[in-house]
Amino acid sequence: MSFREPVAPTLAPQAGRESNPNPSLRVSGETQRPAPRGSALNAAGGRAAARTGEGHRPFVVAIDGPAASGKGTLARRLAERFGLAHLDTGALYRATAVLVLEEAGDPADPATAEAAARRIEPLLLSDPRLRGDAVAEAASVVAAIPEVRRTLLAWQSDFARHPPAPARGAVLDGRDIGTVVCPAADVKLFVTATTEARALRRVKELREQGAEAIYENVLQDLKTRDARDSERRAAPLAVAPDAELIDTTTLDADAVFERAVRLIAGTLEEREWQQ
Ligand code: C5P
User: Fold this and answer.
1) Which ligand 1 atom is nearest residue 156's CA?
2) How many structural domains comprise the chain?
3) 209-225 confidence digits (pLDDT tens)
């Protein structure tokens, strides 16, 4: 598949809120702990860790990519390794979809979808219902609505600017993090793989969970969702010009993780020298 050339952000981050609106949000369990001992933050950036505390801009890692590219797992592992908070931004769109579907509403209706986006509670983000295929499909429908994106943008940019303590920074993964939500992120990664490789992974994952999965159906669902995410007018899936592209088609998760760790550790070191 191909992704659009980087586009100018269509939604400006909303200013105004002073602190993370969701301090109780359970962002990856690890994020509530200080940077793990021996982590690259300590090893490569111990002083950087201290400097990113009070009075310093949080360190932000933006990870974008299509469905089933492995970006979610990578984001969680990186957050744990570097003691950063993690926000799976897809969960916000999925939660919006769950609320719409719960009321038998139409996910394509802007007023219904926007009202649902405003009602999201932090607890909903870890609801198992978010993981269903019908919800994924509806999520990509609500995600194409500019009013929904605007509502959820405030949540995401606040999280990046004010990660829950004690994290000194944040990892956000999604579709438009490097282009719209956090255009000034310290590190931007775009994680991708061929549609076929992603479909195979998704089938394996579903079967491991005991669900039935037919490769052709999963492949078709991914193609539909990729097309909708890449072709929409509002903040489409796109590679930021300054993003590091990581093609995971022939790389295993550990190799991808190590490559990202090296990149982040290097940036942390540079940032330390600049401060
Ligand atoms: O990443 P995940 O598969 O959970 O995302 C579900 C849907 O939410 C995506 O297909 C996409 O339409 C939407 N999304 C988005 N922007 C983000 C994250 C997710 O449009 N930053």
Assistant:
1) 21
2) 1
3) 888 899 999 999 999 99
CA-based nearest residue to 64, from 172, 175, 183: 175
Residue 87: which of 134, 114, 53, 126 has the closest Cα? 126
> How many C-beta atoms lie closer than 10 Å to residue 1's C-beta?
13
Atom of ligand 1 nearest to the CA of 93: 8
- Please give the residue range of the domain that contains residue 174: 57-269
Please name the residue ranges forming H helices in 172-252.
195-208, 215-231
Q: What is the pLDDT of residues 194-209, one digit of tens each?
A: 999 999 999 998 899 8
Q: How far apart are CA 274 and CA 6, in angstroms?
A: 28
Q: Please tell me the pTM assigned to this model.
A: 0.82
Looking up residue 221, the CATH number of its domain turns out to be 3.40.50.300
Ligand 1 atom closest to Cα of residue 130: 4
The verdict on residue 93 lying in a domain is: yes
Residue entry with tokens 């999201």:
120
pLDDT, residue 226, reads 94
**Ligand 1 atom 3: residue of nearest CA:** 67
How does pLDDT run across 23-69, given as a tens digit for each residue? Answer: 323 333 333 323 332 222 222 233 333 334 456 789 999 999 999 99
- CA 47 to ligand 1 centroid distance, Å: 35
Distance 125 CA to ligand 1 centre (A): 13
Q: What's the gap in Å between 197 CA and the centre of ligand 1? A: 19
Instruction: Indicate whether residue 96 lines ligand 1 (CB < 6 A).
Output: no
Question: Sign of torsion, CA 87 92 95 97?
Answer: negative
In short, whether 155's Cβ falls inside 6 Å of ligand 1 is no
Omega cis (within 30) before 13: no
